[in-house]
Amino acid sequence: MRFSKFFKSFSLILCTTPFILSCVSSKDVIYFNNASEVQPTGLTDDTTIRIQPNDELTIRVSAPEQEAAIPYNLTKSVIGLDGPQAAQAVNVPLESYIVDDNGYIQFPELGKIQVSGYTSIELADLLEEKIRPYLKEPLVTIRILNFQVTVLGEVQRPGTYTVTNNQLSLPQALSLGGDLMITGKRENILIMRKEDGKMTYNYIDITDATVTQSPYYYLQQNDVIYVEPNAGQIQRAGLLGTISTYLGVASVIVSLALIFTR
Question: What is the Cα–Cα distance from 113 to 122, expressed in whole angstroms?
């Protein structure tokens, strides 16, 4: 009888331990808990992606007289073409520009131009101003091709994602990874970013609505987001990782108990 009670108690403890370790507060999993208390603030230009060395850009120049814009578009297809053929060639994919280590590109007709530090819109305005004396009503559109962020850790789909927007927030990046799993640590999300040639490590709390005012709420090229497992997940991983050991110990205890209670 004593052995039966002992065995039932031991089994109950063994089975309920994982559930006890995994308990979390609702405040630990809800985003922006205190949103009603946060004063609204306007967005600044710092939230928009700025061009950096080693970025890959496409720059398209168009105008009412499209044939006149051909020399400003970097395409292989226009080489050797003229007249109507050249006018049609601007519809083909463009060659990309690689921003050099000093932040410059070599632009057709205009030569060497510094582009780092500008947003896509700012650079488009600058190029339009430089081209306007030679081309009537120029329109410049710019796209950063290699804007990528990496999402790792306790998310549904970890990986590296290429983004076409000019602005990307942390929640948007997490949604690319399928959002956080319930086991993710929301109050201590790591943002790894290269700033001034050095890697920086910054933690932000997405359960706090004031996170929207953080300089790391909006992401930059090549940012790495890492979501740590919460304490329950770490403990559970340790428990499940040694479950075979626990079962082995349990079998020994049961065997000894059978021997000594006969």
Answer: 13
Maximum Cα interatomic distance, the chain, rounded to a whole number of Å: 104
Per-residue b/e over 239-260, b at no fewer than 16 CB within 10 Å? eeeeeeeeeeeeeeeeeebeee
* 72 and 60 Cβ atoms separated by less than 8 Å: no
**Listed residue (199, 206, 159, 213) closest to 47, CA to CA:** 213
CA atoms within 13 A on the CB side of 262: 6
Three-state SS at 2? helix
* Strand (E) or helix (H) holding 220: none
pTM of the model: 0.65
CA gap 218, 170 in Å, rounded: 6
Is residue 169 within 8 A of residue 211, CB to CB? The reply is no
pLDDT, tens only, 71-101 = 999 886 544 555 445 445 445 678 899 999 9
Candidates 259, 235, 251, 262; CA nearest to 10 is 251
Distance CA(179)–CA(81), nearest Å, equals 50
Coarse DSSP helix, strand, coil percentages of the chain, rounded to the nearest 5 percent: 35, 25, 40
The helix (run of H) or strand (run of E) holding residue 60 is: strand 56-62
What is the Cα 237 distance to its own chain's centre? Answer: 26
Q: What is the C-alpha to C-alpha distance for residues 166 and 48, in angstroms, rounded to an integer?
A: 6
Between CA 254 and CA 10 the distance in angstroms is: 10
CA 110 to CA 215: how far, in whole Å?
A: 35
Span 16-37, pLDDT tens digits: 555 444 455 555 567 666 555 5
Which tokens in the block code for residue 159?
Answer: 């990986």
